[in-house]
Amino acid sequence: MPFARRGYHHGQLRAALLHAARNLLRERGTGAFSLADAAKLAGVSPAAPYRHFRDREALLGAVARDGFVLFSARLAEAWTSHADPREAFAAMGRAYLAFARDEPGLYAAMFSQDAPLDEEGRAEAAKAFELLVKGVAGVLAAANQQGRMPMPDPLPIAMQVWSMSHGVAGLWYGGRPPACPLEPEQVLQEGVQALLEGTLAAARRRPVQVGLWNQPPDAKR
Amino acid sequence: MPFARRGYHHGQLRAALLHAARNLLRERGTGAFSLADAAKLAGVSPAAPYRHFRDREALLGAVARDGFVLFSARLAEAWTSHADPREAFAAMGRAYLAFARDEPGLYAAMFSQDAPLDEEGRAEAAKAFELLVKGVAGVLAAANQQGRMPMPDPLPIAMQVWSMSHGVAGLWYGGRPPACPLEPEQVLQEGVQALLEGTLAAARRRPVQVGLWNQPPDAKR
DNA sequence: TGTACATCAGTGAACGCGCGTTCACTGATGTAC
DNA sequence: TGTACATCAGTGAACGCGCGTTCACTGATGTAC
């Protein structure tokens, strides 16, 4: 039992509440989460949380913010754990799904409007997305070492990858798993693989335009 | 006001409750949905719904089932509205997103474990997925009119397309829309485009093996 | 080192609310004779 | 055609519950002198 209280004053109630809330989120959903239960789990009266959070929403928002911090850390860890960008990117995908699998309630809260993110929370969410963009850019650069093709804009591709990851996570870990016998990791891995391959194939069809990198072909007129 | 009651007996309370529940789901989320409000919206006492549904979950499950029926209809409509499989498939994607945009609460309920599907409901959900598989198979066949490459199994591809669609829907219509300036329709359309292109590129690399269609290359030993 | 006091984290009882669900009932409907 | 009666959809009042939140309070902590 981490964050156990020591006396009349808890000492680290804020951290204990965040911890308890995450556990509740894991067992029940975002909707079933209750402030009273979080307080009880932290071994404290139902009024105590109000010393640290304005209301229920504020606690949920803080949990979601911490969720994005943890999420970013896991993605960054996966990215730096491999030298080859393609392997690193694949590891990122596995880390993404592992996070959604192990913390489905937290993951759902992070992307739900029930847990309103403050400015800092939105910055943390943006940071996680930046990691994905960096990963996509790395894979694209690795596939284009000779600079034979115009570099596609990594942002829409990252958004497509994010969408597929979010979709796989939602379908398998967010509700009813699909009836088909496919493994979510495989679906995502092969899907992203094909997605990148198709993008690169399209890019190879366009002539290299030195000085016009990252610009769409129509922009020259 | 559809399904308005006429006298002491409502006449079509079951349908009215399903209608009211869908409206509530549209305005609030799955979590905030309440049986009492559905009854009030249908102009009936809070005990009346129990004549037609075992409990709150049963009503939600019935709403979800009807949601899948409507969803399938929209997808089928889009598919049959174009002769060219590629155009039809693109229309299906747009129909998918339009459904999730116009009925976000219903869409969320359909994929949430809060609304337990009965046998019939699961069959309806499977039917919607079948339409997607049919669409993928149609596009693959159109790209392979000369029979030059082994036909890839449409099922995992359909699952990847479903995941990306579900992810785009979840990100843009299910919570916080992403900060990036991309349109969800464009992200999905281009993503699926690249995904299919990559899959076809991979398939072209394999030699045609007459009599071994739909079998993975390793299966020959 | 000791003491008075400000600060503030946590208490516990209470509130109002809305919800899911039950229950004895009432009134409309339709069917058997 | 008329009447008695079974059926059953909807009533309304009530229940128990859990929740978010407030409020006057209490007790520990740390700081100024």
Description:
2 copies of one chain form a homodimer. Chain A is an all-alpha fold and 221 residues long. Chain A has helices spanning 13-27, 35-41, 56-80, 85-102, 104-110, 119-142, 154-173, 184-204. Chain A is elongated, with a radius of gyration of 21 Å. At the A-B interface, helix 6, helix 7 and helix 8 of A face helix 6, helix 7 and helix 8 of B. Chain A binds a DNA duplex (33 and 33 nucleotides) through residues 5, 7-11, 13, 34-37, 44-48, 50-52, 55-56.
Topology, please?
The structure is a homodimer of 221-residue chains.
Chain A: H1 13-27, H2 35-41, H3 56-80, H4 85-102, H5 104-110, H6 119-142, H7 154-173, H8 184-204
Helix pairs in contact in A: 1-2, 1-3, 1-5, 3-4, 3-5, 3-6, 4-5, 4-6, 4-7, 4-8, 6-7, 7-8
The structure holds a DNA duplex (33 and 33 nucleotides).
Task: Write out key terms for the chains shown.
elongated; 62% helix; DNA-binding; disordered C terminus; homodimer; 221 residues
Distance between termini of chain A?
Answer: 65 Å
- What is the residue-averaged pLDDT of chain A? 91
Helix and strand content put the structural class of chain A at mainly alpha
Q: What is the number of strand segments of chain A?
A: 0
What's the assembly state of these chains?
homodimer
Molecular shape of chain A? elongated
Q: Which radius of gyration of chain A do the C-alpha atoms yield?
A: 21 Å
Largest sheet of chain A: none
Relative helix content of chain A? 55-70%
- The tally of helices of chain A reads 8
Poorly predicted runs of chain A are 210-221
N-to-C series of helices and strands of chain A: HHHHHHHH
Percentage of residues in DSSP E strands of chain A: under 5%
Largest two-chain interface: A-B, 47 and 47 residues
